[in-house]
Amino acid sequence: MEITLLENDVTKIETDVLVVNLFEGVTSPAGATGAVDKVIGGLITALISDGEISGSEGEVTLIHTPSSVYPDLKASRVLVAGLGPNDRIDTNAIRRVSATVIRKLREVGVKKFATIVHGAGIGGTDVSSSAQSLVEGSILGAYRFLKYRTTDTKRKPDVESMVIVEFDSSKLFAIGDAIKKGVTYANAEILARDLVNEPANKLSPADLASVALKVASDNGLECEVLEEAEVSALGMGAYTGVAQGSSRPLKFIHMSYLGDSSNLENNLWLIGKGITFDSGGISLKPGLGMGKMKGDMGGGASVIAAMQAISQLKPKLNVHVVCAATDNMPSGTAQRPGDVVTAMNGMTIEVDNTDAEGRLTLADAIGYALSKNATRIVDVATLTGAARIALGDGVSPVFGNDEDLISAVLKSSEVVGEPMWRLPLDSVTKRQNSSRVADLKNTGGRGGGSTTAAHFISDFAGETPWVHIDIAATSMLDGLRGWFPAGATGVPTRSLVDLAMRLGK
User: Fold this and answer.
1) Percent of the chain having pLDDT more than 70?
2) Residue 465 confidence class, pLDDT cut points 50, 70, 90
3) DSSP-derived secondary structure for 98-162
4) What is the average pLDDT score of the chain?
5) Which among 222, 284, 287, 462 counts the fewest CB atoms within 10 Å?
6) pLDDT for position 42
């Protein structure tokens, strides 16, 4: 969708549909909505009075305004979008409303439309944040994964063009900058969604590496892909143990953006779990729902996609992305429960359950980052079903060992509308990872499953500032929710981008 900014009076814009808004409880519209209402003879006010328009969040009312009847309005139709109560408007509400609007416009066959920035008038929200949220909500709300659909002939085409109209010239620069930022954030998250939605037969570790190489090539980044012999030489026994059951070769991906090359210690390492299909290995998963395990590389998808946006936004920060990509498959060569492997840092691990494989790959990915002098680490993984049990599918649990980094991650998640909640790393659950035959085992039993997984990873991060985000429940949804579609959400791509911008100011 093409997005442009135009300085003009909204009533003078020639377009298929003009989108304005209304807060709940308003009986006499003001601002841009009031200006439109005036030139169409108070029709919006009349519809409010009749109870057909309430302004409740998510309400959309399409009004036909032919020029033969309303010659002073250049738009063929007006859509009034409800914003909800004035005192509850925020960037998340703007994203939700924008997503609802774009889907409604597609439903009625609109190709081009114009809109005002929601919430930045009497709503009092910051115009930059509002404009960015408008763009993000529109792009992300319009998302569909249709790559393999060939017979749906009745499908409505996507909206092609959005014009954002602003009358106040003093706001144009801020809105223009916000549009660029919103497009960059949203496009990165769409890349993550596309990768997670790909079936496993179309996205192997080699395919994921190819995507990373293309992102790097398109954006002037460095990207190195290590093969099995190279990671074995580095001592990554935990990672290669997971990979040994698969016929598809592993690929260890390392992307680099140097935004502060004079101070290499000013770095952030984003490490994503990259299991391109997780059968559970010898500890085979139940068949029901296993198809969703194509998305077990959601963490890897999010960090690779985030790097696309980071390279374009250029924070003063050195950002590295690592993804230890592989399948987890049962075979005659597969890792067995009870096996002992040695991680890159020399720690020995008893493989209690081969379906707890993601943390094994993260252990060596973190070891690699530390060998390259990482000073801050954030790992992202579709790691535990226990995350869903603890917090449902709307919030990602967060663990960490550094208050400043944890706070920064949580703040970024709040800003972009990808909710996270901190859970503790307590001494009791830590003991559940104890092993009688090795330094630790890769599972801690059913109780506190997300926490014991985080404890396991923390042993490899050591004292280096580190945060773990478990997206097992939030990476894919069964149904539509706000600007998130059914299927892959792309979470937490925009949070990672915002974090890099926050740390790189």
Assistant:
1) 100
2) very high
3) HHHHHHHHHHTT--EEEEPPTTSSTT---HHHHHHHHHHHHHHHT----TT--S-TTPPPPP-EE
4) 97
5) 287
6) 98
Rg (C-alpha) for the chain, rounded Å, is: 25
- Report phi then psi at 502, rounded to 5: -65, -45
The catalytic residue among 359, 430, 441, 494 is 359
Q: Does the annotation count 285 as an active-site position? A: yes
For tokens 């990602």, name the residue.
Answer: 396
Residue 359 tokens, joined: 């943390």
> Which tokens in the block code for residue 64?
């036909």
Q: Which domains does the chain have, with CATH numbers?
A: 2-186 (3.40.220.10), 198-503 (3.40.630.10)
Catalytic residue among 111, 112, 248, 285: 285
User: Which residues contact residue 386 at a Cβ distance below 8 angstroms, ignoring those fewer than 6 apart?
Assistant: 446, 448, 449, 450, 451, 453
Give me the count of residues in the chain. Answer: 505
User: Which ranges of 144-235 does DSSP label H, i.e. alpha helix?
Assistant: 172-197, 205-219, 228-233
Query: What's the rounded Cα separation, in Å, for the pair 120 and 503?
Result: 27
What separation in angstroms does the CA of 77 have from each of 20, 40, 41, 81, 96? 11, 11, 14, 13, 22
H-helix or E-strand spanning residue 2: strand 2-7
Strand order in the sheet with 348-350: 340-342, 348-350, 440-441
Q: How far is CA 404 from CA 215, 271, 410, 474, 502, in A?
A: 30, 19, 10, 24, 12
Residue 154: pLDDT over 90? no
The more confident residue out of 121 and 266 is 266
Helix axis angle for 172-197 and 205-219, nearest 10°, is: 160
Average pLDDT over residues 209-233: 98
Tokens of 199: 């079936």
Residue matched to tokens 């190279």: 230
Give the pLDDT of residue 153.
82
The SS3 call for residue 71 is coil
Whether 446 is catalytic is no
pLDDT digits (tens, 9 = 90+) for 17-45: 999 999 999 999 999 999 999 999 999 99
Question: Alpha-carbon distance 50 to 46, whole Å?
Answer: 6
Residue 469 tokens, joined: 């985000």
Q: What is the pTM of this model?
A: 0.97
Over residues 328-334, mean pLDDT: 98
- In 3-state terms, the chain is what percent helix, strand and coil (to 5)? 40, 20, 40
Residue located via tokens 């010659």: 71
Q: Which secondary structure element, helix H or strand E, spans residue 277, and what is its range?
A: strand 267-278
